[in-house]
Amino acid sequence: MAAALKIAVLFLCIATTAAKFEPFTRTYTSFNLSMVEQANSELKTEKYATIHNDALQITPDTANQGVFSLANQSGRIMFLKKFKLWDGDNQNSTVASFDTNFLVNMFPSPNINSTPGEGLAFVIAPSIDLPDNSYGQYLGLTNPDTDSQTTNGILAVELDTVKQPFDPDNNHIGLNIHSIRSVVARSLTPLNITLAPGIPAFHNVWIRYNGTEKIIRVYIADQPEKTSPTPPMPRTPIIQYNLDLRKVVKKQSYFGFAASTGTLIELNCVLRWNITIQHIPGPKSPIMKIGLGVGIPLLVGLLALGAYFGYKLYKKRLVDRSQSNILSRLRTLPGMPKEFRFRELKKATNNFDDKRKLGQGGYGVVYRGLLPEDSEEVAVKWFSRESLKGEDDFLAELTIINRLRHKHLVRLLGWCHKNGKLLLVYEYMEKGSLDMHLFTGTGETLSWTLRRKILKGVASALHYLHYEYDQKVVHRDIKASNIMLDSNFNARLGDFGLARAIDNEKTSYAEAEGVLGTIGYIAPECFHTGKATQQSDIYAFGALLIEVVSGQRPGTKLNGFQFMVDYVWSLYREGRILDVVDKRIEDDYDKEEAERFLLLGLACSHPIAQERPKTHAIVQILSGATAAPQVPPFKPSFVWPAMMPIDDMSQATSIDTTPLSISQYETDWSPMSRENYSGYTDRSMV
Known about the structure:
By secondary structure, the protein is α+β, with helices and mostly antiparallel strands. The chain is 25% helix and 23% strand.
């Protein structure tokens, strides 16, 4: 019966292929929140391209300067689906027409110089994928190996802001076929149009291709403001060129945008986009009538079985609901990361061999893998918690780290979801975790220079999460085992399973499960409020600071103290804080710097959350730009949150570049002034 139903449906499908199809049309009047979900489900971003700030940002936002390099970058944003552009191979075959109009904004970096570079292009390409080394003059279209190759299938209209030897100037529009060397290029200067003038400027571009005439026409006009109505299309095209698509692009091709920066940089944005592409149907078949004549009666005859099949489909939907839910939510992510096939990861990890296990925790197991296609080593995280919570953890981690871009964060490569199996794929860190080098004996002893380098890297990453990303991100699980090290011992903060993004107007995040994290790194107020804040992350960083300098875990019990921070505070009071420095590095360290780091660790561990330094001050103190904070000789008492609400803490969203004032910890006491003990009570032993 199932076979009969399939046959009936098959006949109907065959019949409908001969029906007339409407052209493909998409109109993105903007890329604001109301449109971004649709855009993310239909468009694919490559490299640092994103759908962000109400725009298609083909190259990185210049506001991200300092987070990662903006120079020598390229990106693409393309439709996920291929389009058939002609039918058959003879000269009489039908060639598709297309018509597109888009609004662009090209803005140089205000922080580097006023000279923009390199440009943006509307492109038809055989692949979504961005070519390697396609930055600079290659505009994300080609690279030194593929440029000018007639087999590359590239057709583009470029908006170019850098003059190459073959260009008319550094402000032109061009038609490119297989190469960055335009077959037609027109300067925009005579039209009083400047592509990237250094002030907000908006340009409308129209591209019309007539598949019957086989002519492409390009028009351009300025628009006064971003929100102004679209101006009338000019009567005369700036470019008109005889073009047979069959001789240039592949029959099945993708449409979208590409852009690049070189030593000069600019933000290349598309703010509005409308496109219509003619549908090219397959050849009509004489069996269409048979399909209708046989398919409909057969399908009607099988309707009696509808209840049975409905029940089967219902059960199948129950099984697939989890996967559909995750996939639908993933499609709303800006710049959805690469999806890996499960069998690909299974092969990469040798069927998830225990010998390849890198680590295991409450959220899953991490395996070392080798991708067969490009021989790239990866770390594969398999979520193992119960189904519903595992999905939440998976989506939370993927949602946050997907858009984070910082040299001291572990880079996400992709994801996999297959029959309830949830996996994330990360860049492999050759030197393993910081915890391994400090405590397991399997790693090499870290020199003072490396410890300093690692701590500065983690502080930089934390500052990015708290202040430089477009949302405040609270990591909630900063500890040595979550600090990964690359081949040069550069620190990469990882494991975002507990991390949560919070709105900028909010200051905390509460979990229904209560306090999550690792004892010794959890700030005292979290046990009372159940909330995580930026300041609770600072507390964890303070524990990490002391851990790295001392080589002792935060929960190590020494001399009757329950935690290392209390022991260090007692040594500080006695004027011998350097006694805690890891004996494995002997005397090969900077004593002034070690003391400064330990005092910073105590400052970050202050029981009162609002007294802890902010990340920008931490970065300055670690670099030596600011002196160590003055810390009271006795550990202050914890203040019950009701007396000082956590939600009232200062959580400024802008960065205060003023160095940390040491008056924040003002005291007349110094470690060697033993006479100043009077009036204090040693609470660290309580």
